[in-house]
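Q&A log
Question type: sequence-to-structure
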Amino acid sequence: MHLSSRKKIFLKGAFVLTLVGLISRVIGFFFRIFLSRSFGTEGIGIYHLIFPAYALCISLSAAGIETALSRLTARYASLGRLDLSRASFQAALFLSTVLSLLCMVCIQIFAQDIAVFLLNDSRCEPLLKVMSYALPFASVHSCICGYSLGLKQTKIPGISQLVEQCARVLGVYLLYTAAMKETGSAGIILAVCGLVLGEIAGAFYSIFAVRRILYTKSTLSRRTISLYLECLRDILKHAVPVTANRISLNLLQSVEVVSIPRSLMLYGFTRSSALSHYGILNGIAMPCILFPSAITNSISMMMLPTVAEIQAASQNRTLRQLIRKVSGSCLVLGFLCTLGFLVFADFLGAAVFHSPEAASYIRVLAFICPFLYTNSTYISILNGLGHTNMAFLINFTGLCIRIAGVFLLIPQTGMSGYLTGLLASQIFVFAAAVRVLVRTV
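Response status: OK
Response body:
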């Protein structure tokens, strides 16, 4: 593909994903204000406790398959093998759906044990059971997005993300309104119901959209069983290492999430207060910091298939130029956001969310912006180049640094110890990724 054409497709795709991502983040921003005022910071803390289990199931059933499908689709498309790309999509969809159903059954059976022995809070049991129903729909949504991104068709992932967010927010609002009218009270489980409704809506839109691509635009003949087996073998070859890496990272993240409230209790907080501070950090402060990452996330999503395509064409000079430009853009955005969050931390924390603690967290977290926004793009580039093990090793070490902050610093200095570890881990990931890319590209 000609350089100018590739650049035009890349920029168009990044623009679509960024626009939709920003709209979704704006909706999510007001949604989090609603959650914090309706369910309280302790409720948000309980809500976020279940996400390591959710992320682990997604990693097992969808995330690695999506990454492999996106990379293979981009490679096959660049070679003109649309038959292989579409057969790979169908094989990946089947595999991911089966795995997600198995995960759903396991969560239903072991929800009580997970809540009591792993999350250390029995109130998470009903939340886990409801959350499990989102998994099959999330896997379908994930595969369709991976296939579409591999073809650089960003309309489907972008609109499906917006549909998912709107359905989630509207669902929670309607359920909350109905519960308040009926009983005068509402539990945080309604937020989990919204998560399920959002995944259902996103999956159904994606299915509708991809049907048109597969059938109205298809000129392929009937595929044979051997073609599907070949595609399934390629998917497993690429997905298994990525899935194993994701699962390992999710297990570490689970340790981190569960240990933060416990370490805060060692510092002197009660269980309720520890969950409240954890809810403020993950439910208010971090989403504010991550708000501008809608731009860099869009870039990173486009980078994986683009890098795979450029690598297949052996255009190393083009690859170096792309990485330099993307790196500079992400760093500039990060530094500007650091300045902005330092200036508006008090307004966001105290005036918007009515939480002085959120203001202090935002102020400290502001310094991770340049590294956080750039790191997601670097990891995507490494995956696009096929260096999945190196990307895993870098992320693994960064998580170990964060966990060290949880166990060593939080009991001594409180939440500031975790924030220090978080900043150190982001700096490490940035430096390590830069070194690998310089030596490789």
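Response note: Residues 3-49 form the longest helix (47 residues).
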